[in-house]
Amino acid sequence: MAGGKNVDEKFKAKNEFFYTIIKPESKDEKTINKELRNLSKARNKILREQKALSIENSLLGMAGRAIEPISKFAGFDWKINVAFLASFAARESAVATVGSIYETGKADSSRPEEMIRVGSGYTPLHAVAIIIFMLLSPPCIAAMVVVKLQSNSWKFMILATLLPFALGLVLAALVFSLGTILGASGLVAMSVYYVVIVAITVILGLIPEKRRNWQGGLENKI
What we know:
Number of strands: 0
Strand content: under 5%
Radius of gyration: 27 Å
Shape: elongated
Helix content: over 70%
Largest sheet: none
Distance between the termini: 94 Å
Low-confidence stretches: none
């Protein structure tokens, strides 16, 4: 406390006028202090709106708007699309990107996850669709470069990019649409998705055994 008082005394001695505004005592000083706080909040709001507008009018923003008519079936708006597009540079940047877009400016909303929750209006079902898409969509650009180097084929790299993207979007749209129609919660939707995926994996895991046996029998006959 003594250290704080010393700082106050030094600041008051240096600029008594500003000190009375920061540490108001009279009615007029408190009024000025309140109006300055309101002015600061309005300024921050304008800056956030300008930031959102610049993002929307950027190349990523226009690309996000362009694919929104398709991605809306999975519950994705242009802001989520921008985060997905930015994640191709680094997957972990998706949450930070969308958190920056939905920034509220409140002190208790410093985490990107909290900013998304407060400003977006997304439901747990939206979260499930986002998780499904992120699980199945192609990895970052660096991984695609490795695919090109290992396969030595631009066609295979493009296929490895577009096929998972299309698969992730279709499955995310399917889960989100059915979940919305049936009124399912995010937990139920994710549980059903995992059960279906595990069942498909088990079934597909049995098919290669039959193929190997069939090939071996054919070789014996030959």
